[in-house]
């Protein structure tokens, strides 16, 4: 049973044998870096950078749901990126007030 699930995962069109798996997997590094920046002083947060990353996250999250097959790895990393960027922008706005 477990081997058949692994086999299905391995042979999936967005599985580990394709770039469609590895690109979103490495994109998690952007999220890790953004979360690590939660301790950074708000005055050092860049609006353009966070806005660009956040918009990229929203665009790719949407795209991952309209392609065939659906790429849930891309959806999850892109959604998480949009959320962390929104939080960073909110920190910068609160600091500016």
UniProtKB/TrEMBL annotation:
Domain of life from the UniProt record:
Eukaryota
User: Per UniProt, what is one Pfam family of this protein?
Assistant: MPC
Question: Principal place where this protein is found?
Answer: mitochondrion
Membrane topology, from the record: Multi-pass membrane protein
Gene Ontology CC terms: mitochondrial inner membrane
For this UniProt entry, which segments traverse the membrane? none
Q: Which InterPro entries match?
A: MPC
User: What keywords were assigned to this record?
Assistant: Membrane, Mitochondrion, Mitochondrion inner membrane, Transmembrane, Transmembrane helix, Transport
Subcellular localization, per the record?
Mitochondrion inner membrane
Its GO biological process annotations read: pyruvate import into mitochondria
Q: What does this protein do?
A: Mediates the uptake of pyruvate into mitochondria.
**Family according to the record:** Belongs to the mitochondrial pyruvate carrier (MPC) (TC 2.A.105) family.
Listed name of the protein: Mitochondrial pyruvate carrier
Q: What is the lineage of its organism?
A: Eukaryota, Viridiplantae, Streptophyta, Embryophyta, Tracheophyta
């Amino acid at each position: 049973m477990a081997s058949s699930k692994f086999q299905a995962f391995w042979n999936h069109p967005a599985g580990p044998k394709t770039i469609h798996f590895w690109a979103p997997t490495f994109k998690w590094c952007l999220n890790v870096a953004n979360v690590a920046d939660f301790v950074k002083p708000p005055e050092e947060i860049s609006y353009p950078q966070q806005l660009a990353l956040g918009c990229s996250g929203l665009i790719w999250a949407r795209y991952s749901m309209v392609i065939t097959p659906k790429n849930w790895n891309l959806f999850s990393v892109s959604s998480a990126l949009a959320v962390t960027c929104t939080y960073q922008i909110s920190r910068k706005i609160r600091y500016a007030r």
